[in-house]
Amino acid sequence: MVVAEVPKLASAAEYFFKMGVEGKRFRPTVLLLMATALNVRVPEPLHDGVEDALATELRTRQQCIAEITEMIHVASLLHDDVLDDADTRRGIGSLNFVMGNKVLAVLAGDFLLSRACVALASLKNTEVVTLLATVVEHLVTGETMQMTTSSDQRCSMDYYMQKTYYKTASLISNSCKAIALLAGQTAEVAILAFDYGKNLGLAYQLIDDVLDFTGTSASLGKGSLSDIRHGIITAPILFAMEEFPQLRTVVEQGFEDSSNVDIALEYLGKSRGIQKTRELAVKHANLAAAAIDSLPENNDEDVTKSRRALLDLTHRVITRNK
Ligand code: GRG
Fold it and tell me: What keywords were assigned to this record (predicted)?
C-alpha cells in the first residue's frame, strides 16, 4: 500500500515501514485486539463454510482499518517532524533530515494519506470514511492549536486536554469505533470501543508528557525536555502552576532562555505536578478498562483473551518508562 511509482517518493514513503524502524505499532495492535474482542461467533450448528468466509472477510476489512490508521499516524509524524524541524525519529534520522528536503517529506506524508484514503474508500462504508476523515481534521486542528496559543490557552488544562484529544486520542478512539461499526455492532458497543480508545489515548499521552521530563529514570530533568524547550506546556507544568502561581510568569516569558527551563524544573520538582499527571493518566486508564468491562458478556476463548489483553494495555500505558 505504501509503494510509489517514482523511486524517490517510494523510498520516502516506505522509510518508516522498514524493519527495525516501524515503531511500537501500538495502534494496529489495539485495533486487531478490539476486532477479536468484539467478535460475535455464530453457535456451532450454524457454523458452516459460509460463516467462516464471512468472518474472514470481516477480519480482512478490520485489518485494513489497522493499516489505514498506521498510515495516517506515520503521515502525521512526517509532517510533525517538518514542523518541528526534528533531526531524529524512532532512533534514526527524520525523513526531512536524511532527505535534506522538507518538501519531499511533506509530499511523502501526503502520499501516505492519499493511499490511506483509497484503502478507506475501498471499504465502501461512508460512516467509517467520515470517522477517519474527522481524525485527519482533528490532527490538523490539534497541531494548529499547539502552535497558535494565547497566553491564557497555554496555561489552561481544558485547552491542553482538548488539544491532546485531537493530536493523540482521536485517531485511536475513532479507529476503535470504526472496527466496531464494521463488525455490525450496536451503537452502544461502538461508543464503548470509542471510549476505550479515547481514554487509552489520553492516558498514553499524559504518561508521554511525564516521560518527557523524567526519561527512563524517575528523576526530573532526565528526559529529553523536548516539549518545554519547544515552549509546549504540558500537564506536569500545568499542575505545578496550580500550586505555584508564580510559575505562570516564567511560562509567559517563554523558554528560549534555558535558565527559564531550569526555573520551571525547580518548581516542578517542588510540586506534585508529576504525581498529579500520573494520577490523571490512571483515571483515564481506569475509564478505558471500565469500557471493556461493560461490553456484552461473551465466553468465547479468543474474545476473552483479547479483552484481557486490552485490559493489560491499560496497565502498560501507565507503567511504561519508555
Ligand atoms: C498529515 C494526517 C496529517 C496531519 C498533519 C502534523 C500534524 C498535522 C499532526 C501531528 C500529530 C502528531 C504527530 C501527534 C503526536 C502523536 C503521537 C503520540 C506520536 C507518537 O506516537 P508513538 O509513541 O510513536 O505511538 P511510534 O514511533 O511508536 O509509532
Answer: Isoprene biosynthesis, Magnesium, Metal-binding, Mitochondrion, Transferase
State residue 237's pLDDT score. 96
Q: Is 278 in the pocket of ligand 1 (CB under 6 A)?
A: no
Question: From ligand 1's centre to the CA of 245, what distance in Å?
Answer: 31
Q: How far is the CA of 118 from the centre of ligand 1 (A)?
A: 21
First and final CA of the chain: distance in angstroms? 30
Q: What's the pLDDT tens digit per position in 96-109?
A: 999 999 999 999 99
pLDDT confidence of residue 51 = 76
Angle at 279 between CA 166 and CA 218, to 5 degrees: 100
- Grouping H, G, I as helix, E, B as strand and the rest as coil, residue 88 is strand
pLDDT classification of 267: cutoffs 50, 70, 90: very high
Helix, strand, coil distribution of the chain in percent, nearest 5? 75, 0, 25
21 close to ligand 1 (CB < 6 Angstrom): no
**Nearest protein Cα to ligand 1, atom 14:** 167
Would you say 220 and 277 are in contact if contact means Cβ atoms under 8 Å apart? no
Q: Which amino acid is at 307?
A: R
State yes or no: pLDDT of 46 exceeds 70: no
Three-state DSSP state, 184 = coil
Distances (CA, A) of 193 to 106, 150, 218, 287: 32, 34, 33, 12
Instruction: Give, as one character, the DSSP assignment of residue 41.
Output: P
Residue 222 — very low, low, confident or very high, per pLDDT cuts 50/70/90?
A: confident
Overall CATH class of domain 7-319: mainly alpha
Cα distance between residue 228 and residue 161, in whole Å: 17
For the chain, give every domain's residue range. 7-319
| Residue 218 clears pLDDT 90, i.e. is over it | no
CA–CA separation, 315 vs 56, rounded Å?
31
C-alpha dist (Å) from residue 282 to 70, 199, 200, 287: 25, 10, 10, 9
